[in-house]
Amino acid sequence: MKWFKRLLIAFFSLSLLGIGAIAAAYFYVLPDLPDVNSLKTVQLQTPLRIYSRDGKLISQFGEKRRIPVEYDQVPTQLINAVLDTEDSRFFEHNGIDPIGIIRAATILITTGKKSQGASTITQQVARGFFLSNEKTYIRKVKEIFLALKIEKALSKKEILALYLNRSFLGNRAYGVGAAAQVYYGKELSQLTLPEMAMIAGLPQAPSAANPIRNEARGISRRNWVLSRMLEKRNITQAEYQEAINSPSTAKYHGAEIDLYAPYVSEMARDYMIQKYGEEAAYTNGYNVYTTISSDLQLMAQESLRDNVFAYDQRHGFRGPVTELWTDTPLEQDEIVATLKRTASMQGIMPAAVISVQDQQAQVMDDNGELITLEWKGLKWARKFISDKRQSLPPKQASDILTAGQQVWIRHNGKHWQLSQIPQVSSATVSLEPHDGAIKTLVGGFSFSQSQFNRVTQAKRQLGSNIKPFIYAAALEKDYTLATLINNAPINKPDTRQGTAWRPKNSPDIYGGPTRLRVGLAQSINVMSVRAMRHTGLDDTIKKLVQFGFDPSDLPRNESLALGSPSVTPLQVATAFNSFANGGYLVEPYFIDRVTDAYDNTIEQTIPAIACSKPTLAVEEIVVDDPFAAMAEELSQNTLKPAIDTLDEDAEITTITAEQNICTNPQAHFAKRVVSEQTAFLITEALKSVIWGGGDWSQGTGWNGTAWRASKLIKRHDIAGKTGTTNESRDTWFSGFNPTLTATFWVGFDDHGRQLGRSSWMASGEPDQISGAEAGAKTAGPGWNDYMNKALSGTPEASVIPPKGIVSARIDLATGKLTRKTDHTTEFEYFAEGSEPKEYVTETQQSGDIFIDNVAEDLFQ
User: Fold this and answer.
1) In 119-180, beta strands by DSSP E
2) Is 356 within 8 Å of 363 (Cβ atoms)?
3) Which residue in 333, 377, 502, 734 could disulfide with 743, CB within 3.0 to 4.6 Å?
4) β strands within 694-790, DSSP E
């Protein structure tokens, strides 16, 4: 029995020695052991995501792609696949697996090699979050003690969830959620058994067993995982057999972008980096919800793109990209390989001309497909000579193309056509009038072509888009829409610029005394200058600054009245928004809120809002006694109909009072920059820019500069203004209705290049839009198309004049009150107290009427 006692003593001694060694090891590494409780609040590195206001993903930034998931969101078979592969006794051990340790020790003793086969999932979590991957004994000791502590601090499900979310699975995918998207473009719940097995096999060899990089090895690893699942009876033999026989369907899937709006996402990315720093912005899992409306953004992008194409085609075909062959055609594989080296852009794709005959051509795209370009897709291609000149229209396809040329083609929604990369630039932005939320923003034709955001960064001359603000300042002084301003050459020039500056009309035609409404609608230059002279240069500049323009951009000379300041499209839209919302300057904003990785809101924009009082029906200036009683009765109750006409066939129209009440207790309010009455009057004049005025049947009708908008957008609640600078270097159209304000700009990034002129339409047929490029022709069609789409299906807003607005019938020639009701008169709106006080007489001549009361010799 002595040998037994000795054996027993030896066993206890070794046990005590082992316990002592473990204790010594524990106290040795204890100072270096981190607090595992931090895993309860661990923040996984998650990319920055940018969304539209309606939740469409616009972009994703960050090196690591991760889609955190809860344990309950992971399919049971995926959990089984991971456990059967990595740690089949996970739910049985307390963090370390003695059987695995013995196996690893045996391998070490017999082969002298260290193995990680003994690492449980808990140990891998400990290593992944707190330790390095170096294979040292001390690191292994730390790993074991950390695993034990983790098991006490967290539940098994919490530990497994950390593992499933943190594991690197190749192709920048971290965690099973991201892997499902990257390899299969699916949600976890959509994965098939072989797909789950493929993902489960990646943690130990994310590069070597990557099914995209090494399909054969990936399948081999997948099948091994399936064999483990069969061995553990988590799948049947039939399921196993079907799964191993299935081909690999893995291929790389980028982030699932729902809305491509790169200029917006770049603005959001820059904001987050500036506020939180690059590291935090890219890894903390922030979600930025912008104010962008996905539907409107797509409309704006399409309208801008189509408008740029239309301008580009009006100016002719600049020729093929290159010649691929002359005599001996290339083989199809060679053609496709060459074309694939050229990236497509905004729907424009490279193609090779295969044959040309009569009025059609056959081309090959970069997939080797043959496409026929019919004459309707070719006939636009007059030869480009200069921005001002194009050749005569082609008669045959051979006048345009030759076999062997590489060209651009695109599908315009109706048919394939020859195309080219536009050289002209454009930008557009639209705002919500009430709070300034940016609904759409397109900073250029193509982000891949140029990342320069022309909406916020490009300062271009404003041209006639400035005139509504010039006239607003004049109205706030004492002018009215019926004030007559002399539409005649200015003989006393402004010499503040160092030269004798004499502004001229475009075209150089003058019509004598003209009402302010008409002067704005027809964009008459000399009238704008005279209106500014009446207001005074200093007061005009003060008013422009109130509209949001930078004082450093405003020259102190009369060229200001014609739009010499250089400003950004966003500044222009912001200023026009003041008319749309009743006179308030609302600061534009594009970030609605920011949330963290757990969807907690950490930023919420509370914009300054345009808050107006209830509007009231129009009051009337009574000019005929028979209707005095009616007018008096109606004026006492503003909710009843108001008199619209005062002739013998007086029509009564109902104007419903509408209230715009700001009820948010956290709201703060925008600054008023013009009175509600002035905003209303300018808006009415800007409607005349589109709809014109007068009576065409009586020969007194006249067009505004944007008459084309009325042909497409058949609603009367739209208002806008064209803008063209000297030599047509910049063209604008800005306008609004009560729910949306938008600005379109078209020009070249090269400030010295003129937009030129064209003599034929893109279709090859003569048309009234031929001639010099200008705001109505060049920028206007983009605005028209966008607003037509954006407002489709929305009710037309009624005209509800605010309190303090009155209407009176005036004589069109003199602007005075009249008792006539024929085509020489019409009703006009006035700020109360500014309406005419005199009646026109039967014998009054044009020479007797008021023109303007500022002597021209005030400006020398």
Assistant:
1) 173-174
2) no
3) 734
4) 719-724, 730-737, 740-747, 757-758, 771-772
Active-site residue, 464 included: yes
Residue showing tokens 């010799």: 857
| 507 upstream amide cis, omega within 30 of 0 | yes
Whether 302 contacts 259, CB under 8 Å: no
Of 52, 59, 86, 432, which is the active-site residue? 86
pTM: 0.82
pLDDT in the model for residue 113 = 57
Kindly tell me the burial class for residue 345, based on how many C-beta atoms sit within 10 Å of its own C-beta (0-12, 13-18, 19 or more): middle
Stretch (H or E) spanning 683: helix 676-691
Between CA 443 and CA 423 the distance in angstroms is 15
Please check whether residue 578 is in contact with residue 679, taking contact to mean a CB–CB distance below 8 angstroms.
Answer: yes
pLDDT along the chain (860 residues), means of 10: 60 49 43 53 81 95 84 93 89 77 64 61 75 61 70 83 87 90 92 94 87 91 93 93 93 87 97 94 94 98 97 95 92 94 94 95 95 96 93 94 96 95 97 97 95 96 97 97 96 70 89 96 96 97 97 95 96 98 97 92 94 47 36 33 30 33 72 97 97 85 92 95 93 97 97 83 43 92 98 94 95 92 92 94 53 36
Q: Which of 265, 430, 464, 523 is catalytic?
A: 464
Q: CA distances (Å), 374 to each of 129, 334, 362, 377, 395, in order?
A: 63, 25, 9, 6, 13
Can you give the pLDDT at residue 727? 86
Query: Contact at 8 Å (CB) between 754 and 387?
Result: yes
Q: Choose among 25, 34, 38, 63: nearest CA to 131.
A: 34
Cβ-count burial 611-641 (b if 16+ within 10 Å, e if not): bbeebbbbbbbbbeeebeebbeebbeebeee
Q: What is the pLDDT of residue 166?
A: 86
pLDDT of residue 207: 84
* Short-list 286, 78, 48, 41, CA closest to 176: 78
Please give the backbone phi and psi of residue 212, each rounded to the nearest 5 degrees, phi first.
-85, -45
Q: How far is CA 612 from CA 38, 276, 659, 666, in A?
A: 52, 37, 8, 17
pLDDT given at position 495 = 67
- The 3-state DSSP class for residue 230 equals helix
CA gap 421, 155 in Å, rounded: 59
Q: Across 693-782, where does the E strand assignment appear?
A: 719-724, 730-737, 740-747, 757-758, 771-772
Write the pLDDT tens digit of every residue in 800-841.
999 999 999 999 999 999 999 888 899 999 999 999 999 988
**CB burial of residue 601 (10 Å; 0-12, 13-18, 19+):** exposed
